Amino acid sequence: MNERYENKKHNYDDLMDYDADGSRKDYGKSRQAATAAVKLTQDIMTVLACDLNGTDAKNLDHFLQKFKMPEEFCKYHEKPKCDDRKKYRTPTGICNNLERPYEGSSQTAYARIITADYDDHLSKPRRKAYGYGLLPSCRQVSLAFGSKPIFSREYNNFFAVFGQFIGHDISLATPATDTYLTPISSCTCGSKYDWNKCTVIDIKPDDPYLRGQKCMAFPATAQAFKNQICSLGVKEQMNGNTHIPDLSVLYGNTVRTAAIVRSDQGLLKSTRTHWSKLEMPPAQREGKSCVDATYKQPCFAGGDSRLMVTLGFTSVQTIFLRKHNELARALHDLNPHWSNDKLYEEARKINIAFFQDILYTRWLPLLFGTDEFKELFGPIGESSYNVNIPPVVFNEVAAAAFRLHTLVRDLFSRCTPDGNRIDELWLHDISAKAKYAYDMENNGLDSIICGLFYDYGFAHDGNFAHQIHNRLFESVNKYGQLWRNDLVAINICRGREHGIRGYNAYREYCKLPKAYNFEDFGDTINYDGIQFLKKNYGHPEDVDLFVGLNLEDTLPGSLIGPVSACLLSLQFKALRDGDRLFYSHPGVFTPGQLQTIVDYPFHCFICSVVDIDKVPLNPFKPPNDSDNVLKSCRECANFDLSDWAETQSAIDCMMRVLIVSSVLCAFILTINGQFNQAQQMSGFQQSSPSQMPNSMGNGQSNQFIPQNINNNGFRIPYPQCLSTDIAASMLTPSALQSLFETKLQQEERKLANERARNTGLNNNDIMDFDAVQLRAGTHNGALVARVATKVSQELVAILGCETNATITQYLDHFLKRIHLPGNTCVFAANPDCSNFINVRTITGVCNNLQRPYEGSSQTAYARLLPAAYDDGLSKPRSQSVLGGPLPSCRQISLSMGSKPVFDTSYNNFFVAYGQFIMHDIILSLPVTDSGSTPISSCSCESQDTDMCTVVDVAPNDPFMAGQQCMATPATAQAFSDQVCSLGVKEQMNGNSHYIDLSVTYGSTRLTAHGLRTGTNGFLKTAKRSWSKFDLPPGQREGRSCVDGTDSERCFAGGDSRLMENLILTGIQAQWVRAHNIFTVELANIRPDWKNDDFLLYEEAKRILVAVHQRITYDDWLPILIGKEAANRFTGDNGVTSRYDPSMPGVVFNEAAAAALRLHTLVRDLFTRCTPKGELIDQVWLRDVNAKCKLAYDAANNGVDSLLCGSLFDYGFAGDTNYVQDIHHRLFESVNRQGEIRRNDIVAINICRAREHGIPGYNAFRQLCGLPRASQFQDFTDTMSFENAGKLQMIYKHPEDVDLFIGINHENHVPGGLVGPVSACIIGTQFRHLKYGDRHFYKHEGQFTPAQLDAINRYSNQCFFCHTTDIEKVQANPFQPPNDQTNPLGLCNQCPIFDFNPWRVDSRTMG
Fold it and tell me: Which residues hold heme b (predicted)?
């Protein structure tokens, strides 16, 4: 009574998506009777003081069901008469099973796979944890799930919406109601203890999305009697719909609803518009299922009040409504003598058959995977009715397994009849709103139907769209408070309210071993999922079924995991085999009729009832040009109803039977006086979805700074894709701040998990990344940059912008106008450069005095061309211009050779020195745990492309069989142009960009300080008793090699990669030795500098950086790109050059990720020789890779023996061949499971460039002045016909060719080792690093003419001699010795560096 009073005051539009249609006679009493029976059971058990634990609890339900309720409270005490319902379905589902006629009917209890698990074993929701304590809050668990689902190209949005349609057809968790069948409205945060009426989910005050909201409260599910037996017992929940897939969602699940939706002539009621020949659902005359209804644009009505949950769902409903009416009209034309009822029933029967055929032959095979479906279900046509199988929905399926909300999109496309995109609508724009259904200019519902085919679905990966995760049914209550719900938390708590056991119980049921610890879940859940469970649950028994299912790894070719597949196969087999009228069962249709139904193409079924020109061959998958082409609707034939035609003889026979039967019935009824009057049908009231306004909550502080804003409002010029109204509300400082804080919290939670994982991590498992500490700031700079990208993605999506590569640059310009708060920006204020006018800083800051952060360490790479991301913002380039995916990185790599040939024009020292240069200017710093350690959670299942790069490996890979992938951390992000703003993703260079020996001295002050002795300008070294030359210092922290000991330590330097191979270590040793030599000489030549650690250190460093730059530009670069190109890009007319402050001294992403990845030159066999040049032996790359043993080999002169050998070892030709040690066996190791793990540098290079958004090779041809290729043979101006043909075999189109692969197939430029496009990119790079470096040694004013002359005269040969134990070195150490062209010279005849010009220094060092 109190509830009825409350409900009179209540606006039912605020209720969720419950259907209040419960008009069947006495069902109201039956619901209350079921509730009363449970409460009576509780009271009896309390009075009897029964212990409900242990064995007694298992037998309790069987005992209690012996106590029957009085008949007046039981709707099942009489069996209905089913004789006249054997051929057609009843609206309620009654009489499907003739022996148990109520089974599977509407408003009966869900069945159970496993007995209920209530805290009191009767009705109290499952809240107790295993052992002791409470289960985690539903909202707490929900918040641990992600809200960034990724797209799956395996299915489209029509598949997801159709799944929701199926779910609504077979299940409706009817809410607890008053006796008038109106959902109770008194649920509040204080209702948590009346669990039979309300479910209450607590919300913490610091909830990131629901601040100020104490709880989510909604009616509990109504109760029903188990097995249609009115008795005492354990609580069971009511399914308001028929359990069987029978289109009750369209036709209704009560007699009254079915009558309301019908028209005459066998038709369903519909709405006609003047602008379309096609129908829409009928207008709703009572109740209100939408929030924006008007007299001219009313809400829609149907068999289920949830038809307007979204207009996507309404669209599917409309398809089947139109099909029914098409069938009814055609049947009337075919059999004009049929009655209205027969036309209705036959059209309904065929329509349901289409629905079931689509469900079982199209939808379920895609959900399960074709092979898994065949194994579980067998051939559909071979099934038969089994009277002993109850066709009922299981509670576990309704409350967990079929709650597939991770697939639900929150953005819906609309398109024209010819498939051209109109726009995109957010979920809240079409949820419980009719507006766009009546949009005649854009084709109403058909534009939404069209969009469903083209929109990719979301992967089933444990991420939920933000609008259902944290903004469900968003509304403002009567007090002006923003109110939101969380469907994930609701699903978890609904499962507990329904007494659903934990995930572990269903593992056992599905023949999987019971988990005794979280690691035991590893056979169904990946490492990240297990960590999720550990963080949120205390024991495996506690894990909620819904949570466990959503964390499962999907089965091969499937969208769901193994336990989900087990439960759902059980469910849909029961609904097939237990349904007497299932379409394919013998006798339901004639063989000819059934064959006609199953032969009718799915796409033609759709075409026949929509205003769309073309539909995909499989409408559940996005269209493509190969296996799912668009099919013209004009080519579809009408559905053939000839098998439903009745011949004249059959009609005459039926008429005679009908007349005789009528006369006989009338005679009997007259004799007995038993003519009955038709009873009036009772009324009903529908509930409707709650309001969902599209406003966004404001943030807490006005920290963001959108540019061009003034007192009159926003002045950003919006891109054309934006809605100005939405943008004006969204692009406010407070809204942006709120969005930023949300994303920041999400990313910080990820990194907190990473720090936990990284505890005790063996850094040798990580590739060649430098784990340098990021520059200090309020927040980690890389983290904030990544968050800014996430905000950009969210913002562009919310604002309704299409994101793709074609509008990347335009969107980027717009987003860069939105600056982050100063307290989050490491570049908020310019540094004081007054003390660094004449001194190069360690970080590179203050090189350009106008833009002081430019080129400094831990800033973004620049770009020669705009980024090419799949989504225009951050998603790695993965799609062919012709549609479909680009070829796998590993697949491309395998097409490259592993048999390189020698090139006698250069040697291995040239290659090693090139690697040294690259390490000096490039460090693609990995995503870290916000400390100093790269993330360690990257695995084959990693979906977050901002965190991990995953290279798939095929099962039949010839070198990596049994290895599923190569997974490495993605590159950390940074802000473009050192401006902390939103925008397209950019990657971080961990080193300073300049050629400044940061590889030796360090790129951070902390590293530089750690490498210095602090006295006399010296660098630290490791002394050797057996040589006059030292080694780099031993490493005190971390471990850069795998074989270091206390006596033979790994080595430390300015860059942790110095031990990638021992030749690289040797070159590092040369520069450390040279620094300390130069420091001594400077102290001797300048007595006034003695004991001045700063001056000696800085001047020695300044001179050696100049020597390094000279060697790089004069000796190394001309060999690589040819003398002509080197002179064209970096040559000078005189002795000196001039600094250009307008030229950025930065590394280009294209050079770092492709053009300077010169791995085709790398050798895998290294010679060692004595100081006299005599051969010692040869060692493999794996013997010197991250190993220090040979560096301490006193008998063979340590690293100097390898440096000596590098002078004699020929290089490899720069072609498409790579040595096996880096091609197929890179960083080979054995993991803890004893499995061999390998990497492939070629595949990693390709995927790294895609991750960095590097455009294809063709774009750089155009940039470098070559014509853009339209066909592969156009490439023959830069490569051989054979190589162009190879690319054609790998790629679909010239635009698809990766830059790294394209330049590796080029013919070399004259006198160089690379092709023309590569030379163009590399030349441009080194031009910028020369003229954009204020301290470049040749620039006017950097050195006096005499000093510059001394630097120029100091040859690479003499530098080599003075820094090693070697006795003879050739004139050009980058080329093999040759008696005629490159003779060996005695090192004792090499002049030392001339320090005389430093006796008087004209420069003043600050």
Answer: 405
Q: What angle do helix axes 1345-1353 and 1093-1110 make, rounded to 10 degrees?
A: 60
Check: CB of residue 99 under 8 Å from CB of residue 387. Answer: yes
What letter would DSSP give residue 457?
Answer: E
Is the per-residue pLDDT at 279 higher than 70? yes
User: With contact defined as beta carbons under 8 Å apart, do 1013 and 1157 qualify?
Assistant: no
1085 pLDDT more than 80 = yes
Residue 364: C-alpha distances to residues 350, 370, 873 (Å): 20, 9, 34
Q: Per-residue pLDDT tens for 15-68?
A: 223 333 333 444 445 556 667 666 776 666 666 656 555 445 456 666 666 666
Which are the contacts of 1091, defined by CB distance < 8 A and separation ≥ 6? 1015, 1016
Assigned token pair, 1284: 């162009």
Residue 1266: count other Cβ atoms within 10 Å of its Cβ: 17
What pairs with residue 1211 in β-bridges? 903
| C-beta of residue 537 within 8 angstroms of C-beta of residue 525 | no
| pLDDT tens column, 221-232 | 988 888 777 877
CB atoms within 10 A of CB 835: 12
Q: pLDDT band at residue 69, thresholds of 50, 70 and 90?
A: low
pLDDT band at 659 (very low <50, low <70, confident <90, very high): very low
How many other C-beta atoms can be found within 10 angstroms of the C-beta atom of residue 685?
17
Phi, psi of 854 (to 5 degrees): -60, 130
C-alpha R_g of the chain = 38
- State which amino acid sits at residue 1158: L
Handedness of CA 1162, 1165, 1171, 1175 (dihedral sign): negative
Helix ranges, 1293-1374 (H): 1299-1304, 1316-1331, 1345-1353, 1356-1362
Is position 1305 annotated in a ligand binding site?
A: no
Q: What confidence category does residue 1182 fall into, taking pLDDT thresholds of 50, 70 and 90?
A: confident
Q: Are 1357 and 1388 in contact (CB under 8 A)?
A: no
Phi, psi of 1243 (to 5 degrees): -65, -40
Q: Is the pLDDT of residue 1034 over 50?
A: yes
Residue type present at position 29: K
Residue type, 97: N
Q: What is the pLDDT of residues 873-886, one digit of tens each?
A: 899 999 999 989 99
Residues 6 or more apart in contact with residue 152 via CB below 8 angstroms = 456, 457, 458, 459, 460, 559
